[in-house]
Every structure is written in structure tokens, then in C-alpha cells.
Design brief:
Helix content is 39%, strand content 17%. It has 374 residues and is of the alpha/beta class. It has 2 domains: 3-202, 3-Layer(aba) Sandwich (Rossmann fold), CATH 3.40.50; 213-363, Rossmann fold. It is globular, with a radius of gyration of 22 Å.
Length: 374
């Protein structure tokens, strides 16, 4: 199936193609038609299944080009809200929609100034959004499309009452799309109170922890991480490799230092423009570069044939992110190798990942010392 078959506009389909996104994921195939109809939805899907585009594509295309806030997206953390905003920004530019990101940690007076232009799309975290509502700097009375993303995380962080208060501020005839990886009773209660006869969509994430992917752990001291990474890349000599980092600063540093070691490498993170990202991905797909150093945000939906190795320089924050990362290799029936660098401080995160995939990951022992150059 193609996005055109889901009635996504030609302009947005072209934007997606430029980003290397051609075929919709299962959650997008199921959610987009239902969301376009205006129905309330409960979408149970894990991180990495493509749910962000699943709720953005059908709702943004229904926004009217008038200076009225019409869509609200509520996310549990600043990081997730920022990630959604970056995905939405280019679609909004294509559709001539004004959007704003409202999170804590930002200057509230600058946010107030931006809100005066009355953006049609508002994305943010519950606390700061509610703060603006109470100050009277934003009105949600005409918002008729609301996305509650990662509802179970909102519950864990204690934001459910804030979410309820925000929902009460929106239009009575609103459409609500509630997304959650799990459905604890309190989230069911929220859905029952605020959603009208919702359609429930359950999408299982693809299992990517297959036998074709060799999963390994390399135990390192923090001060030796970079030198160990170099040793691994030299020993493994990948055809194409993705090195994942937690922060864009780390990605930029690693790309620079690996280039000094004569690796063919580029960086991919949120600070790059779309034109820069497209250029980097073109080089990676054509194997002009051997190593891509990326953050998880920049590498969303990355699908490149020929990736033989994935290295997690920083241990991922949860099992869903781990599965997303290692799924970049071992594709189309080919074998792949996923290596995770683990310090003493990372052991708890590793244990949670192993519990999530129901497998103990083998420890890779250091190779004998080799003084030869690359």
C-alpha cells in the first residue's frame, strides 16, 4: 500500500518520499482512514510503530487556514513533544499551517508572544499548556482535534488530571485520538469519560529480535568508550553501520572524531535541516559513507538496505527504542549485528531491555590487541 491510497495529499506524499518514507506502517494503514472520518480513537501501539505520522497526516490536512487554534497534541515529556513538533513542522510548512511548541524549560514570555499570532496547531506538555490556559494567553475553545500521546506515560508522570483539565477547555464536538502502549484502568477511565464511542485499534509492533540479528554487549569504562568503538568498527569492518547516541552533541563529537580516524562517516540529528538530512541519507544509501552516527529522533523510520551493523554508543532508554535500533539491520532476510556499549551505570537499563526482549544478551569479549592501522 502507498500513502496515496490512504488519500494523503500529493504534496505531503512528495514530502514523505523526499524523506525516504514511501510505504505506510501497519498502524498508519489502520489509523489514517479512521482518523480522517473524525471518529474518536483509542490506539494501542508501542514506540517505533509510526503512530506520530498516523495521527498527524489525517488531522493536519483537515485544519482550516484561519487564525484559530484547531488542533492540540499533548505529550508527556519535552523530548517527545519536541520530536512530534519536528515531524509536524515540515508537514505544516507544506500545508501552510502555523504551529507552536509549548513546553517547560522555555521562556514563557517568548511563548506568549508566539501565541499572539494564534497558531492553528499547538503541541506541548500538560503543565505548561495548562499554565497558558490559566494565564489567558491561549484559548482552546475552538480546538476540535486533540491527540493525547503516550497516555500511559502521562499517567506515570502524574499528568492525567492536567490532561483532563485541558480536554475540558476544548470544543464540545472535538475528535480525540488517545495513543498508549498499554491500557491501565485509569487510562480506560479517561477514555470512557471523554471519548465518544471510540474505535479501538490495537497494533502489535513487528518482532525484530530475530535469529538473523546477532545481539552483543560490550562492557566498557566511560573513559574508554570511544577507543572501544573504534576497535569494534575496525574489527567488524561493516559494509554500512549506524551508531546511535542519546544526544546530538555526542553524535556531532563522534562523527568528528571518527572522521579523524579516517572513517567515512556523517552525522544525523535534529539540528540538521531537512536538506542536510536528505543529503546525508543519499550518501549513506549509496554507500558513499560507511558509518552514520545518529540520534533516535533523527533516525525515526530509517529504512536502508545493506545495514550490517548497529552500535548503541549510549544504551537506549527503553526496550522499544532498543528494538527500533536493532531493527535497522537484519532486514530483507539478511543477517545483522547489534552491539551495545554498556558502562557500570547502564546495567539497570540493560537488565530492563533483556527483560523486555525475554533474552539475556551475550557479552562480547575484547579482541586481541592489534597495532595495525585500518
Amino acid at each position: 500500500m502507498k500513502f496515496e491510497e490512504l488519500k494523503v495529499s500529493a504534496a505531503v506524499c512528495e514530502l514523505l518520499r523526499r524523506q525516504g518514507i514511501v510505504e505506510p506502517t501497519p498502524v498508519q494503514e489502520r489509523v489514517i482512514p479512521q482518523a480522517r472520518s473524525g471518529k474518536d480513537l483509542v490506539v494501542q501501539a508501542k514506540t517505533g510503530t509510526g503512530k506520530t505520522l498516523a495521527f498527524l497526516l489525517p488531522t493536519l490536512e483537515r485544519i482550516k487556514k484561519i487564525p484559530v487554534a484547531q488542533e492540540l497534541i499533548i505529550a508527556p515529556t519535552r523530548e517527545l513533544a519536541t520530536q512530534i513538533f519536528k515531524v509536524a513542522a515540515e508537514i505544516c510548512t507544506t500545508l501552510e499551517i502555523d504551529s507552536i511548541l509549548i513546553c517547560g524549560g522555555q521562556d514563557i514570555d517568548r511563548q506568549k508572544e508566539k501565541l499572539r499570532r494564534i497558531p492553528q496547531l499547538i503541541i506541548g506538555t500538560p503543565g505548561r499548556l495548562l499554565d497558558h490556559v490559566k494565564r489567558g494567553t491561549v484559548s482552546l475553545k475552538n480546538v476540535n482535534k486533540v491527540i493525547v500521546d503516550e497516555a500511559d506515560e502521562l499517567l506515570k508522570l502524574g499528568f492525567i488530571e492536567d490532561v483532563e483539565n485541558l480536554l475540558r477547555e476544548t470544543a464540545a464536538d472535538r475528535q480525540i485520538i488517545l495513543c498508549s502502549a498499554t491500557m491501565p484502568p485509569r487510562i480506560r477511565q479517561l477514555a470512557a469519560e471523554f471519548l465518544s464511542s471510540p474505535k479501538e485499534i490495537l497494533v502489535e509492533a513487528k518482532t525484530v529480535t530475530l535469529e538473523s540479528i546477532s545481539q552483543l554487549v560490550v562492557k566498557v569504562k566511560p573513559e574508554n568508550k570511544f577507543s572501544r568503538l573504534v576497535e569494534i568498527l575496525q574489527a567488524e569492518n561493516p559494509y554500512l553501520a549506524i551508531v546511535f547516541c542519546a544526544k546530538k552533541e555526542t553524535a556531532a563529537y563522534l562523527a568528528l572524531e571518527l572522521a579523524k580516524k579516517k572513517f567515512a562517516v556523517e552525522e544525523l540529528h535534529g539540528d540538521l535541516t531537512q536538506q542536510q538530512r536528505n543529503f546525508v541519507m543519499k550518501k549513506f544509501r549509496s554507500a558513499e559513507i560507511q558509518i552514520l552516527v545518529a540520534t533516535d529522533i533523527a533516525a525515526r523510520g530509517l529504512d536502508v538496505e545493506g545495514v550490517t551493523h548497529v552500535v548503541s554508543y549510549d544504551v537506549p532508554r527503553d526496550v522499544e527504542t532498543y528494538i527500533h535500533r536493532i531493527g535497522r539491520t537484519g532486514r530483507a532476510g539478511e543477517s545483522g549485528t547489534a552491539i551495545t556499549l554498556v558502562t557500570a551505570d547502564d546495567v539497570d537499563k540493560l537488565r530492563k531491555i533483556e527483560a523486555g526482549i525475554k533474552k539475556q544478551i551475550a557479552v562480547k569479549r575484547p579482541a586481541p590487541k592489534n597495532n595495525r592501522g585500518r
